[in-house]
Structure formats: C-alpha cells, structure tokens
C-alpha cells in the first residue's frame, strides 16, 4: 500500500464550521472522475481534505486524482491499495483522515453544490449520522428507465427507518468506531451492514434530503441484472431481509402455480391485478420521471414490468448464492 498527498497553499475558510474529511474509494474511474471532481470543486462548503483509496486501477485514475490535487484548494491524499474492496478502502481512508467529521461518497456521483453544506448544517451535538439523499441522472434511455423505476422518491422515505447509502453520508469518527468500521468481509451491501451496526450501537440518525448526490444506473439490461444479483448475494452473505426475500419467492411461486393450475381463466385476472398492485410504486416512480412526449412515456411505462421482473429474478438467483457462501464461511470457522 502506498500513499501520495498534496497540500495546496490556499487556507481554510474563516468561519466557525467544523473541519470535514471527505473519503471515497475508486477503481478504474478515469472516465467518471472529471464530472465528480467538477462537482466537488463547486461545493459551497468544500471539505478540508479529500482522502481516496484506489483498489488497483489499471487506467489513469490515480494520475487524474494526483493532477487535480495540485490545484484543488484542499489537501488531497491518494492511497494505493491494490485488491482492497470498498469496505477496506473506506476504512483505510477514514483511518488516514485527519478530522473528526467524515463525509462519505462514491466517485461515480455528481454532488449538488450544497451537498456538504447541507450535511454539516444538519449535524448537531446529539446527532451522530446525517443521512443524505440521492437522485438519478442519466445519459441513455436504459439508464433513465432503470434509475426511474428503482430509485425511491423522497416522499416514499420514512426518516426513522431510512438506511443511508454511503454515497451520501456524514458520520463522526466515533460513530465509525462504534460500528467497528465497514465490514471488510462483505463485497456488496456493506453500507447497509454498517448502518445497522451504527443503529445497534444506539447512534442517532437524521435525514437531510437537501444533501443530494446524483448517480446513474447501469446502461445495459445485462449489467443491471448483474448489479441486482450482486446486491441480493450481499444480502444473503450478510443474512439481511430473509422475510422480504421469502415473500418474493412465495409471490412468484404462487404466480407460476396459478398460471399452470387447473383454473387459469379464474386465477389469471387475479394474478394480473396482484402484479399490478405489486408494481404500483414502480409505475409511480416512472411516471414522475417520465420522458417528454406521449409515445415516449407510453414506451417508458410499458417497460416497467420487465424491469421489475428482471430485477426480481436476479435477486432470486443471487440470494441463495449469498446464503451458500454464508454457510460455507460459518462451517470453515
């Protein structure tokens, strides 16, 4: 593992806001970094330092970060740790960070200009974790479709139950320590496990919807299915949401049984109504984020059931793979 740092001559702003370290991990992010770094430079409240852990990029990710750090107006530290997964990278970055307030994001995002300012403003003495929000951005029809259908709307969120993504998060160093860091044994869903550990430690969360990080979904159906397979495999590895996954298997099993059963003419209309109800929230999201034009909107909405089914099938394939890994891991202890 190696590290490089740069410390520009510009000074800290003269106000009473707390010092903040921004941490993230990267792997072959050369293409997406310019947009992210541009959004970071535009922050109304810039972080006091940026600490990045590179997991072994083979493109120009590290040189891009190093070059940007020369004129960034903040201290930039790039730690090269080939083979480090996301959890290991975040833990390394937080260990190296100099300040007690830690903002966390992903390189694939674009941060609204007021992102960090909103996170810091929501943090009070009795708040340990500030949950930022996220919104979709897109450059293609598929990206718009997947993001529109799958990303929750703000009015769907229960602030008391919301588990923040680590693409938009502010924590204290003490909160990270109380959770014993990100789980380095887990490759996906690591931020949810980290959130739940902080919840178990009795830490106080607050939702700050004004702190928006924007990110795009996958560009192809295959990449989308692979992503949700991995998410569900992570659930299985971590033992998360067993009832939720069981309900999904049960619903699809009932649907198949209804179609193949002896009374399809009676059962099929009920199945259609049931599936429509299941998809209602996804249609609502798609409608709110619909493209302009009647024909484009109709095509967009017609694709919603396919997005739901492909994602569900990917989850139903990934979850048992994660459970199998979990059993093997336990038997090997």
Question: What is this entry, summarized?
Answer:
The chain has helices at 33-41, 61-69, 86-96, 115-122, 141-150, 173-178, 190-200, 221-238, 242-260, 264-278, 280-288, 294-302, 304-331; strands at 2-6, 20-26, 49-54, 75-80, 101-104, 110-111, 129-136, 169-172, 205-215. It is an alpha/beta fold.
Describe this structure in words.
This protein is an alpha/beta fold and 333 residues long. It folds into 2 domains: 2-215, Spore Coat Polysaccharide Biosynthesis Protein SpsA, Chain A, CATH 3.90.550; 221-331, no CATH class. It is built from 13 helices and 9 strands. It has helices spanning 33-41, 61-69, 86-96, 115-122, 141-150, 173-178, 190-200, 221-238, 242-260, 264-278, 280-288, 294-302, 304-331, and strands at 2-6, 20-26, 49-54, 75-80, 101-104, 110-111, 129-136, 169-172, 205-215. It has a 9-stranded mixed beta sheet. Helix 5 (141-150) crosses helix 11 (280-288), helix 8 (221-238) runs parallel beside helix 13 and helix 9 (242-260) packs antiparallel against helix 10 (264-278). The longest helix is centred in the last third of the chain and has 28 residues, at 304-331. The protein is globular. The model is unreliable at 6-12 (pLDDT under 50). It holds the Pfam family Glycos_transf_2. This is Glycosyltransferase. Residues 21-134 form the Glycosyltransferase 2-like domain.
């Amino acid at each position: 593992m190696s590290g490089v740092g740069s410390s520009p001559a510009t000074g800290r702003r003269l106000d009473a806001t707390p010092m903040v370290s921004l941490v993230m991990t990267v792997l072959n992010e050369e293409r997406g970094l310019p947009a992210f770094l541009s959004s970071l430079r535009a922050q109304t409240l810039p972080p006091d330092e940026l600490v990045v852990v590179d997991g072994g990029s083979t493109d120009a990710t590290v040189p891009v970060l190093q070059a940007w750090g020369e004129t960034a107006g903040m201290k930039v530290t790039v730690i090269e740790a080939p083979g480090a997964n996301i959890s290991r990278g975040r833990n390394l970055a937080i260990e190296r960070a100099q300040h007690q307030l830690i903002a966390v994001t992903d390189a694939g995002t674009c941060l609204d200009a007021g992102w960090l300012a909103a996170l810091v403003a929501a943090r009070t003495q009795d708040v340990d974790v500030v949950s930022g929000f996220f919104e979709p951005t897109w450059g293609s029809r598929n990206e718009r479709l997947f993001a529109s259908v799958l990303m929750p709307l703000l009015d769907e969120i229960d602030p008391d139950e919301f588990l923040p993504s680590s693409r938009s998060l502010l924590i204290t160093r003490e909160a990270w320590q109380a959770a014993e860091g990100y789980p380095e044994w887990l490759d996906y869903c690591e931020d949810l496990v980290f959130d739940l550990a902080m919840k178990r430690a009795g830490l106080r969360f607050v939702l700050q919807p004004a702190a928006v990080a924007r990110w795009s979904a996958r560009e192809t159906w295959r990449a989308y299915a692979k992503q949700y397979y991995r998410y569900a495999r992570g659930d299985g590895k971590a033992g998360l949401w067993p009832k939720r996954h069981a309900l999904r298997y049960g619903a699809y099993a009932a649907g198949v049984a209804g179609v193949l059963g002896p009374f399809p003419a009676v059962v099929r209309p009920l199945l259609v109504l049931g599936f429509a109800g299941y998809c209602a929230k996804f249609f609502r999201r798609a409608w709110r984020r619909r493209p302009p034009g009647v024909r484009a909107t109709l095509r967009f909405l017609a694709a919603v059931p396919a997005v739901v089914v492909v994602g569900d099938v990917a989850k139903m394939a990934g979850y048992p793979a994660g459970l199998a890994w979990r059993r093997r891991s336990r038997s090997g202890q």
